[in-house]
Amino acid sequence: MIQFDNVNKVYEGDVKAINNVDLTVPDGEMVILIGPSGCGKTTLLRMVNQLETISSGSILLNGEDVTTLDKIEMRRKIGYVIQSNGLFPNMTIEQNMMIVPQLLGWDRAKKRDRFNYLMDLIGLNPDEFKKRFPHELSGGQQQRIGVARALAADPPVMLMDEPFGALDPIIRARLQEEFLQIQREVKKTILFVSHDIDEAVKMGDKIVLLRDGEVMQYDTPAEILNHPKNEFVNEFVGSDRVLKSMSLYTVKDLYKAFTLKPNFESKDIRTINEDTSLRVAISMILNQEADQLVIEDNEGNNHGSLTMDLLEQFLHKEIKGQEG
Amino acid sequence: MNELIEYFVKNYPFLWGYMLDHLEIVGLATITAILIGVPIGIYLTTNKYLAGTILQLASVFMTIPSIALFGVMIPVLSVINQGVGFLPAFLALVLYSQLPIIRNTYTGIQNVDPQLRDAANGLGMTTLQRLWKVEIPNAMPLIMAGVRTATVLNIGIGAIAAFIGAGGLGVVIYQGIVRANTTMVLAGAISVAVVAILADFILKLIQKKLTPKGAN
Q1: Which parts of the sequence belong to the ABC transporter domain (chain A) (predicted)?
Q2: What is the pLDDT of residues A211-257, one digit of tens each?
C-alpha cells in the first residue's frame, strides 16, 4: 500500500510542484496518475522512491515513511519502469533483467530460474534472447524487458513512468493487454503515470487526475468518465467521454441488465461475443456491419440481439441513472 | 632511400635500445597519467564548478611549448638534484597527457544517457555500482580515445625529452642534427612515427576488448 499524506513539493521561489496530495494506492491495485504536461505526475511518482525529495508531508510505503528507509534498499524493493526502457546497452538481456537480483546477491540457479520464468511471462524465448544486447531488439521487445526487469526481484510495489508512451499505437495496445494479463497474475501495487486518458481508462483500477500538482479527482475510471467532478476534469477526459466509458462495459454487462429474448429470426445477422466491449459493439453498428448483433456467450448460447436502441437504454440506466 | 635502409640494417641494435628507452618513459608517464586523469575526470562529473577550472588549467598546460616546459623543469627539479634526465621528462609527459584523458573521461561520463543514470538509481544501485556497471562501461569508447590521443602525443613529445638527457629516440634525431646526418634524422623520425602508429593500433585493439559489445 502506498499512502500520500498531505504531500507537498516546493521548488525555490515558492513554486509549488505538488500541492497537498492525499491519496492511497490500495494493495494489488493499479492507480494511474494522469494530467497535462507539467502537472507533477512524474514528480509525484519519483517522490515515492526518493528520486525526488519531499518538501513536507509524508509518503508511507506499507505503513513506513519512505524518508526513514534506507534509499538503496527501498529502491530494490520497488519495481521501476521508465518510458525510454532504460536498458543498459552494455549488458545482455539476461544481465539487464537480473540486475536487482544480482544486487541482492541471489545465487546463479535462482537467477536463471527467475529469468526463464519472467521471459515466459512476457512471451519471449529465454534461450534466444539471453545473450543478445538491447539494441538488437525491437522497441516493443525492449519495453517488455524493461517491465520484466522491474518485476525481477518480485517487488510488491511498482512505479511505472509512461512505460508504453514511446511505442507505436498497435504495439502499445498489445503491451497494455499483456501487462493487464501479467498484473492479473502478479497483483502488484502499481502507481502508473500516463498522459493518455484511453490508456488510463483501460489500465487503471483508479485514476488520479492532477493539475498544477493538485488532485482534481481520484476515482474509478467509470466515475471519472461518467461524473467528472469539475469543468477541468470534464474537459480533460474529452467530449467523447460517454463513448470512452463504453469501453468499460462488455456485452455481457448489457444483457445482464435487461431481459432479452433469444433471437432466431434472421440468418445473416452478425454475432458478437459476450466479452466484447460495448465500444466495439457501437462501432460495429455504426460501421453498418449490421443493425443488430446477436449476442453469444462463450458456450455459443444465444442471448438475444443488441441494437442501437438497447445501447441507448443501457447508457441511460448505467450512467444517467446513477446521477439521480 | 637505400642509404636509409642500410642505416636501419646496420644500426638496428642501437635504434632498438633507444626505442625501448622511449617506450619506457612514455609508457610509465601514460600509465601514471591514466591513474591520475581518469579518477579526476570521474570526480569532475560530480562537481561542475571545479570541472570548468580544472579543464581550463589542463588546457593551459597543453599550450606551453614542450621545449619550454622541459626548460622550466630543470631549475625546479635541480633542487632535488633531478634537473635533467628521467624525472623532468616523466613529469612533463604526465602533465601533457592530462588534458585529453581528463576531458574525454569527463565528457564520456557526462554523455551517458541521463535516463540510464535514472534507471540505475531507481533500481537501487549505489553511486559506485552505477559508476562501475553503467557509467564507465558506456563511457569506455571516449575514455579510451583520450588515452590513445595522450599516448600518441607523448610518443611525439617524448622525442624532445632527449634534449634534457632523458634518452629515447629523440637522441637519434638530435645527434643526426648535430652531425648534419640527414639519414640519421630521418631514421629517428621514422622510428618515432612507427612507434606512434603501432601504439595507437594496439590501443585500438585494447579499446575494442574493453568496450562492452552493446556500448557504442
Answers
A1: 2-237
A2: 999 999 999 998 898 888 999 999 998 878 777 888 888 888 888 88
CB atoms within 10 A of CB B123: 27
* ipTM score for this prediction: 0.82
A166–B contact, CB cutoff 8 A: no
- Report the residue from A88, A134, A135 with minimal CB separation from B134: A88
DSSP secondary structure code for residue A131 in this structure: T
Tens digit of each residue's pLDDT (9 = 90 or more) over B9-67: 888 888 888 888 889 999 999 999 999 999 999 999 988 889 989 888 888 888 888 88
Q: DSSP labels for B136-170?
A: HHHHHHHHHHHHHHHHHHHHHHHHHGGGGT--STH
Cell numbers at residue B8, please?
A: 636501419
CATH number of A2-240: 3.40.50.300
Range from A118-122, A236-240, B155-159 carrying the lowest mean pLDDT: A236-240
CB spacing of B121 vs A51 below 8 angstroms = yes
Q: Which of A78, A90, A149 sits opposite B215 (nearest CB)?
A: A90
Taking only residues 4 to 63 of chain B, the set having a beta carbon closer than 8 angstroms to any beta carbon of chain A reads: none
Candidates 3.90.1280.20, 3.20.20.140, 2.60.40.3710, 3.30.70.3270; CATH matching A251-323: 3.90.1280.20
Q: Does A186 touch chain B (CB under 8 A)?
A: no
| Angle at CA of residue A144, ends A138 and A146, nearest 5° | 105
Q: Does B194 touch chain A (CB under 8 A)?
A: no
Q: Are the beta carbons of B118 and A86 separated by less than 8 Å? A: yes
Q: Which of residues 55-94 of B touch A (CB under 8 A)?
A: none
CATH number, domain with residue B187: 1.10.3720.10
